[in-house]
Amino acid sequence: MKIEIRKSHLAILPIAIVFAIGILLFVSAYSKKDALSTFTLWGSKETTVESQNKDSDNDGLRDWEENLYKTDPLNPDTDADGYLDGEEINSGHNPSIKGPNDKLDFYPLPVGDKYNITDKIFSDIDSVLKSYIEQKDEYARDHPEIKSSQEYLAQVSQSTLEEMFTRAILYNEKNWAEQVNTILEEMPEVFQIEIADKDINISENNGSESIKNYVESLISYIQSEEFLFQEKSSILLKDSLQSNNFDQLDELIKINDDEIAKMVEIPVPLSWKETHKQVLKTVITMRNIYISLRGYDSDPVKATVAINETQRVLSDWEKAIEQINKLSTMQNLNLSI
């Protein structure tokens, strides 16, 4: 049996893009937020952006988070079961489905107060942000040639931004990193995804037709233009952070979340079980990284952790590709990723 599949243009996230995302996060979260306008050196001349923290119906979920969960941002109780949408997320329930059978999937979106690491660590994040801005202002005073925020953003180096960020964090909380690790250990569904046999639909049918149908579905998703490991997706992420316009990025995340749901339900031939779990685990983790970076405005600490997780996930994805190619060779499938 041969399955003819064109060679994919899949590209591991370029290192330059990862670094660029890191710079954008530091700059956007700490020097361009509306809340910091009173601290800026250039006052009204400095560019500000609309806050991403709007919660129109006061249900504990920000409007963009409701968009990803497909709930109503103007209705605090989308499924009309007597519980706020945010309350349901925090307790592990689906805000779109009435109980009692409304438990969230094993791969929930890491949004809402339950997954806000910054809020769990810092009771007064403004003090951290103010510390950063004070360092920025000092830097500008030491470089009189800088006359505007645009010149500052163009000249400041990544290492300088990281040092400012680190000092701002450590000035307010010396053991924040330890706290982050403890919190993440209690929430492995964010970056430490594990897939059990019971989480997927394993088929005892290991025949050629069953394998053919499964592999075609898997490769179709992996080679799609919207797949999160495509270079096009990483560029969209970077551009969205730079422009502070997340409409296309939110649609990309929702498309992949729908595809993940299909991968959970698709019949998986027994011989592909372990490979399928590796692929699913890696894709869910990357989706969570995208969501964490997208939500930098409300949870900069989780966004920072997401950047650090990127290289590990890229390595895991390379291993998943190796597994797919190895298994396809053993089963005489003609495919290449």
Produce the secondary structure layout:
Elements: H1 15-31, H2 63-69, H3 85-90, H4 117-121, H5 125-142, H6 149-155, H7 158-172, H8 176-185, H9 188-191, E1 201-203, H10 208-222, H11 231-243, H12 247-265, E2 267-269, H13 273-294, H14 300-330
Notes on the protein architecture:
The chain is mostly helical. The chain has a domain at 15-24 and 193-330. The chain is built from 14 helices and two strands; from the N terminus they run αααααααααβαααβαα. A two-stranded parallel ribbon has the order 1-2. α1 (15-31) crosses α7, α1 runs parallel beside α11 (231-243) and α11 runs antiparallel to α12. The longest helix has 31 residues, at 300-330. The protein starts with 14 loop residues before the first helix and ends in a 7-residue tail after the last helix. The model is unreliable at 1-9 and 29-50 (pLDDT under 50).
